[in-house]
Every structure is written in C-alpha cells, then in structure tokens.
Write a structure and sequence with these properties.
- The protein is an alpha+beta fold.
- It is built from eight helices and 16 strands.
- The strands form three sheets. It has a six-stranded antiparallel β-sheet with strand order 12-13-14-11-16-15.
- Strand 3 and strand 4 form a beta hairpin.
- Helix 1 runs parallel beside helix 6.
- The radius of gyration is 21 Å and the shape is flat.
- The relative contact order is 0.15.
- The model has no long low-confidence stretch (mean pLDDT 93).
Length: 324
Amino acid sequence: MTGYSALHEHAAWIDLSARGRIRVSGDDRARLLHAMTTQHIQQMRPGDGAYTFFLNAQGRILADAWVFCFEDHFLLDTEPETRARIYEHLDRYIIADDVAVEDVTAQMASIAVEGPSAGAVLESLGATLPSNDGALQRWGAISDEAGGEVWLARVSATGTPGFRLFLDTTAKADFLQRLSSLPAGSLPEASLEETRIVRIENGHPRYGEEMSDRFLVQETGQLQGIHFTKGCYLGQEIVERVRSRAQIHRVLRKLEIVAASGNVTPTLPEHGVKLKVGEAEAAEIASAVQSPATGKIIALAYVRTQFAEPGTDIVSGAYKARVL
C-alpha cells in the first residue's frame, strides 16, 4: 500500500522533523504569547494545545503555529518557512519580560501518524490518545535505552484524523523501529509529496504555500485560529474591523478543475494563475494537484466572494473550476 492510499484508507506515518519547534519559558511567557498571537494563551493549562496566528500591525499573517502548554513552558510548532521569523519576532518584543525563547528544532523530532486508523495504530503500541483536537498527552519513553519523554498531540497535517509525536532526536530511530515492527505493510511512510496531495484534496491549507503575509486571517477561512473575545494583541484592530464589518473580498476555497470543453484533463495550473470571468478576476490559484483517486485537478484558490458559493462554476480559458 502506498503512503497516499494509506492516508485515505488506513494510516501512514510522516516525518515532520523539518518543522520548527520553539520553546518559550519564563514567568511572563503566557502574557507575552497572549499579546503576540490570536489565541487566548492565558487561559491555557498544561496539556492544552491551540492553533494560532502571529500577525503584524496591519493584520497580515506573519506565521501560523500550534502552541502547546507544558508545566513550565510553551512549545510552538510551526512551518519550516516561519521558524526563524517567529523566533526573531518574539525576541524583538522581549524588553523587560521574564521570557526565554529557545529554538529546539535540532533537539526534538516530530513524527505524525495520520489516516482513519491512526488512533487504533497508536493504541496498539500502548499510547493513550488525547481526547480533544490540539490536546497533548504524555506517552512516556519509547524504550529504556532511548529514554526521554514522548508527547502525543491530536493534530493533523493532512486534514485526515491525525496525531503528532514530539520526542528527543536520539529516540527517533527507536520509535521508527517500533513502527516497522507492525505487520508488514500495515503502516507505510507517506512522502511529503503524498502528504501534500492529501492535504490539498482535503482543503487543508499550509503557511508557505496557500497562506502568506499577503492575507488576512478571515480570507484563509481558518477562524479556529482566532479567539474573538480575548484581550488586546498585535493586529487585533484589523481582525475586529473585518469581523464587525463582515467585509472581505476573497476567501480560500477548494476547487475541482476539469477542461472547459472535451474530456482531456487540462494542464495543472501553477501558483498565481488567475481565473477570469470576462474581464473580472474570479480566483487566484494558490496550489493544485492531480488527484490519484479521481483523476481530476484539485486546487486551493483565493476566490472573489461573489464567486465563492459552493457549486459555483468558474469557466476561464482552458479551465472549468467548480467551487467545492
């Protein structure tokens, strides 16, 4: 079974160790992160996790991250493209605060297990699963030889049911050995390209591809990353203005693309390709893949709001795109 098929039908593991991991400690850590992100960090307790955004003063997205609360620190789990940006952004705003920011990417590994049977696979290995999305659960050591704590979070990189493990880099090989001890072929590795295809099929955006500092949070549709009633934070004025006026001109949508006429699959549209209806711009492609499951092109695109209703067809040049 390929990694792609496993993510759809069973489960696969994904090496996410290239993602950035930043440890934030000190007595003022919650206050600083609360003021710098869109989530209510000050109400988090050990074992909690939340998806959040870092914004600039104009409300544009500098980065996204999962923030996990431990007894004596927070762990930020972010895209490789924003690892340095978040570190520098936080460091810049530490003035008289009792806060230490440490890049621990090299010291920690991250392995995901995702797919419909991901939870059952991990339970067969002795894990106790976190109950809620984002929640964090201590698993213990992978082995007496490897040692070190292993933590398990209910987080998905593909939009399928998923879990993410955080463990010491020295324990990574030992954990992968345990995965390989499962019945042959029952838990294949999904490559980053297979992961990307499934992610886009599921309409699950990623910073660095579909999200960037061009966009406002509401345009991405990822409203689970915002706590709308928390106190003041960097970029809040713009977020609240957009919310109160309900005024955005584009929104991220999943599209199914076929040829405008005939049965030939059109060329895969590149990032930035614009779809027009007459002279009016209707959508801008952020990412696109050919789905092995359907043979059709699936894309994530920023669609002008007048064309964004599910079921709307956008016919532009060689492409006929349906909003899903």
